[in-house]
Amino acid sequence: MVYRIKKSWDKDFPYFERPKAIGYYSIDSSRSICFDSSQLTYYKPPKNYEVNFNLNQGIESVKRKIKPTKHEKIDTFLQWIVNNIDKIRADPESGRSLQPNIVCFRGLLSRLIKTAYDEREGWIICAAKWKGTIYLMAFDTEAEKFEILNQTEKDLQFSSWGFKFEQYILTDEPNKSPDTSKPVDEREEFCCVFQSHLNDNKLLYAAEMDGVYSDKLLSDPLPIENLRFIELKTSRLVDNERQFSNLKKFKFIRWWSQSFLVGIDTILCGFRDDKGVVRRLENYRVADLPKISERFWSASVAMNFCDEFLNYVKKKLLQKFMIIRSINLKGFRTVTLS
C-alpha cells in the first residue's frame, strides 16, 4: 500500500479527547518497574532566563540507559496494565478484555503524527492483537541499528546534554534547589499512563514525564488527574532565520506532538552553544507551535494521518501479528506488511 503525502489528510482536525492521566509508575536505575512515584521530580522555575548551565559537568560519570544492541519492549507498561486491570477492564458483554482498542507508548504515536512531514526516517512497527485490543511496538530500522552501533563519544555527549539540562531545572523536593553535582542517571524514569480518544479509537499509552508543578511534596497515591507537568527540551542557539526555520520544520512538530498527547501546555527550552553551555531559556506555549510553524506543517494533517493509519491497522490486522514497515520515497509514504 502507498500513501501519497497529504493525500486525504488535509481536512478538519479530528476529534481528540483531552488526555486523562489514570495512573503512573517509576523505572529505577536497574530498569525495573516500581508502582510508585519514587522517580517523580519537581519543576523549579528559573529566576533568570539568561543563564550559564554547563551541560558537560560530571559527564564522565553518566549512567547510560541500555547497551546499544538491547531493545526494550513494552514489558514494563504491560506490567502496569496487569497491576491495574480494574481501571481499564472492558464490559464482559463486549467480548473484549480491555476498554482501549490501541495500546502503545506515547513515542510511537508521536512518530506516527509527524510521519507525513518526515522525509528522513522510516520506521518499523509491530502490531499484535489479543482479545480485541491491538498492541503496537516500535522496532529499530536497519539504519537506526547502524547509527546506534556506530555512535561516537560526541553523539553520546549530545544525548547526555538533555538529561543534564533537566538536572538544572528539576529537583527531588519542591523546597530544594536543583542538585547538579550528582551523576546523571539516564536509566531512571517517571511515567504516566493516559487514556484518550482519537475519533473512534480509544487509546491507552504511557509517557515519560519530566517534571511536575507543585509547591508541596506529593506522596502516593498521587492526585494524578489534577497534576500539571512541564516538558523540557534543549536545542542549539538560533543565530539566523535559516536555523529558526529548521527548528520550526523539524523540532517543533515533534515537541508539539509529544506535549499535545499528554496535555502539557508549556515547553521550556534551553538554548545551548556548541560547547554544551545553555545560554538562554525560552518558554513556548504548546498551542502556539502549529501557528508558528504553519509554513512547514499542519497539526490537522499530522493528526489525520495518525488516525487513518490506526484505522488501517485495525482493518488489516485479521491475524494475530504483523509487521508494518514505512519507507519514505520522495512524495510518497510506502507501507508494507509482513
UniProtKB/TrEMBL annotation:
- Among the Pfam families in the record, one is RAI1
Q: Which cofactor names does the annotation list? A: a divalent metal cation
Key words, A-Z: Hydrolase, Metal-binding, Nuclease, Nucleotide-binding, Nucleus, RNA-binding
Q: Return the InterPro entries for the record.
A: RAI1, RAI1-like_fam
Compartment annotation: Nucleus
The EC number of this protein is 3.6.1.-
Q: What class of enzyme is it?
A: hydrolase
Q: Which GO terms describe its biological process?
A: NAD-cap decapping; nuclear-transcribed mRNA catabolic process
Kindly report the protein's main subcellular placement as a broad class: nucleus
CC terms in the record's Gene Ontology section: cytosol; nucleus
A single GO molecular function, which one? RNA binding
All copies of domain RAI1-like, residue ranges: 18-317
Q: What does this protein do?
A: Decapping enzyme for NAD-capped RNAs: specifically hydrolyzes the nicotinamide adenine dinucleotide (NAD) cap from a subset of RNAs by removing the entire NAD moiety from the 5'-end of an NAD-capped RNA.
The entry assigns this protein to a family as follows:
Belongs to the DXO/Dom3Z family.
Q: What is this protein called?
A: Decapping nuclease
Native organism is: Cotesia typhae
Source lineage: Eukaryota, Metazoa, Ecdysozoa, Arthropoda, Hexapoda
